[in-house]
Amino acid sequence: MAISSTTTAKEQEQQEKKVAIEFFHIDMIPDAMDNMKWTTTAKLMRHWFSIKPEFAFTVQSRRIALNTDAVKLPMSQVNFDIIKMSWAIQYEQVRTGIDELRRLWKSAKGIERLKEQVNKSKFTDEAEVFIGYSESVRELDANAQVNILPIGSKFDTVNEWYGAMGNTTLKVCVRGKTNRVDGENIFFVDKLGFYLKDTYDFVDEDTAPESLGIWSKSRVLDKKSSSLYMSTYLSGMWVGWFVIIQVLYRSLTLIFVDGRRNMG
After folding, report:
1. 10 within a domain of the structure (yes/no)
2. Membrane-crossing residues (predicted)?
3. How far is CA 121 from CA 114, 129, 140, 177, 183, in A?
4. Is residue 25, in this structure, part of any structural domain at all?
5. What's 182's DSSP letter?
6. Whether the predicted pLDDT of 252 surpasses 70
7. What pLDDT sits at residue 211?
């Protein structure tokens, strides 16, 4: 708690007024996440703050990072240990996405991508090609990924998934091998694997910066409460309503970020 002092003059008398100001900084958000039991999200944001050297995405570099084979990304900008599919599968966006991608992965683009992956392995009629048998997600992303599906929405419920991932990309990779049957080259799929690839950033292709939410030291407002807060905050509300809002939302801070501190 900080004390802000101001001095006013009234006739010949000096009066000092002290106002208590409670500051809330962006690096205090993980503590609020911990308080809400968002442990995975808190770990992710703390990792974001810890990255050295700092770097920033642009819209273009973000697209490149998402579309580049993971083996080509600097290890200092990659993390595999915080977001796990065993955690992500709890959320409807992921479960529904997996069901849809399992059904649609063999689209024209998916088959074309599979052919590209096979041909990268110097495929010949005489030799079998095995794809997707690595345990490294970086190698799977580079050599076995065949299709993608965007999942998540800015309109989703505010929960730990929304705090950690929001909008992201679900990918599918294949495990299998080529074989020659009746004079034709056939690829036999043994298994499908699903994983997420995302950039932890706040680069927004819209004209307005992305809101990180309305936070206090203990929580974040849900969508309904945030809408009420913003509508009254921006409308120049009358005194009676202002008092109600201050009681309901005291110690809450609206935070916007512009992508200057980002990680992959």
Report:
1. no
2. 227-249
3. 11, 7, 13, 11, 20
4. no
5. T
6. no
7. 67
Measure CA 190 to chain center: 30
If one counts the domains in the chain, the total is: 1
Alpha-carbon gap, residue 185 to 172, rounded angstroms: 22
Closest of 156, 176, 215, 204 to residue 36, by C-alpha: 215
Domain presence at residue 48: yes
Task: Work out the angle between the directed axes of helices 223-234 and 239-249 (0-180°, nearest 10).
Answer: 140
Beta strands 130-131 and 253-257, pairing class: unpaired
The domain in which residue 66 lies consists of 42-197
Mean pLDDT along residues 115-127:
80
pTM of this structure:
0.78
**Gap between the Cα atoms of 109 and 117, Å rounded:** 12
**Comparing C-alpha atoms, which of 254, 142, 260 is closest to residue 202?**
260
In the predicted structure, residue 236 carries a pLDDT above the cut 70: no
Give the E-state strand segments of 134-257 in sequence order: 145-151, 168-181, 184-197, 210-215, 253-257
Q: If we measure between CA atoms, which residue out of 218, 195, 242 comes closest to residue 101?
A: 195
